[in-house]
Amino acid sequence: SIPILFSVFLVAFTFLSFSLLYGNLLRQRRLADIKNEFISNITHELKTPIATVSVAIEAMRSFNASMDPQRSKEYLDISANELQRLSLLVDKVLKLSMFEKKEIELRYELLDMKELVDEVTSSMRLQFEKKGAQVTTHAEGDTHLDGDRLHLVSVIFNLLDNALKYSTDHAEISLTIKGLSNKVQLIIADSGIGIPAEYQGRIFEKFFRVPTGNLHNAKGYGLGLSYVSHVITKHHGTIRVESEEGDGSKFYITLPKHQA
Ligand code: ADP
Fold first, then answer.
1. 40, 58, 71, 185: most buried, per Cβ within 10 A?
2. Which of 122-131, 182-191, 199-208, 229-238 has the lowest mean pLDDT?
3. Ligand 1 pocket check for 49: Cβ under 6 Å
């Protein structure tokens, strides 16, 4: 009976190996598909703002001095809007390059978290206005820290973008920045749809999106929070979420003030 046992074992082992291998292949195929779709979407999306700004500039150039000031303001507004869209796309590309290379490199400099938050909130003013969102900021203590400006700005942007995306109109969003003895804490709270408890542990995974179907048809690739947590971890900081389904979310980020 030993040979029989051995054959059974062998068959089971072979079967298990094949199914693991197959599962892995399927997963890789899926990642490749998502990546291809992402790249082709982004290339397409990049073309539109570039074309629009070119047309607006061309129009202003041909009208020049005789142009009606109202008209030229319109063209300038369009250009500013499109440039804002371009910078959002750059943010997406940053995220893409992160998961391509798996590693990001930080360039530390002395930053003021309060200043970064103000910079991001004022650049998003139009988006907030469009959705009638109320955004309040509160800072206390010394909020300076060593950090990478580009990536931390992108972190704040991603969290605020989510706070807007996963809220209905007239959202209330608050940002609290606390300078503690050797840490800086940033808390971003929204009054949005919240995250069901069973998914809270997974939202920082690459490509994970809460499968709530029609609850939110917000666009996304499930990359934002994985990028955010990667940047925070690289800064030797921590991020966690507190949320109640239907009752908003609170993201807590804690960063050391000094990097070795
Ligand atoms: P994306 O927004 O592109 O789907 P993210 O990685 O930024 O990707 O977020 C992952 C998922 O976590 C989102 O799809 C959403 O389901 C959930 N989520 C993130 N932020 C919030 C928030 N502030 N409120 C409710 N759900 C959120």
1. 185
2. 122-131
3. no
Q: What is the 203 CA–ligand 1 centroid distance (Å)? A: 7
93: which residues sit within 8 A by CB, 6+ positions away? 42
**Two structure tokens written together for 152:** 């931390």
Which pairing describes strands 144-147 and 238-243: parallel, antiparallel, or unpaired? unpaired
CA of 209 to the centre of ligand 1 (A): 6
Asked whether the beta carbons of 209 and 224 are under 8 A apart, the reply is no
Indicate whether residue 223 lines ligand 1 (CB < 6 A): yes
More confident residue, 130 or 214: 130
Query: Would you say the CB of residue 196 lies under 6 angstroms from ligand 1?
Result: no
Residue 53 to residue 48: CA distance in whole angstroms: 9
| Integer Rg of the chain from CA | 23
Kindly give the number of the ligand 1 atom that is closest to the alpha carbon of 212. 16
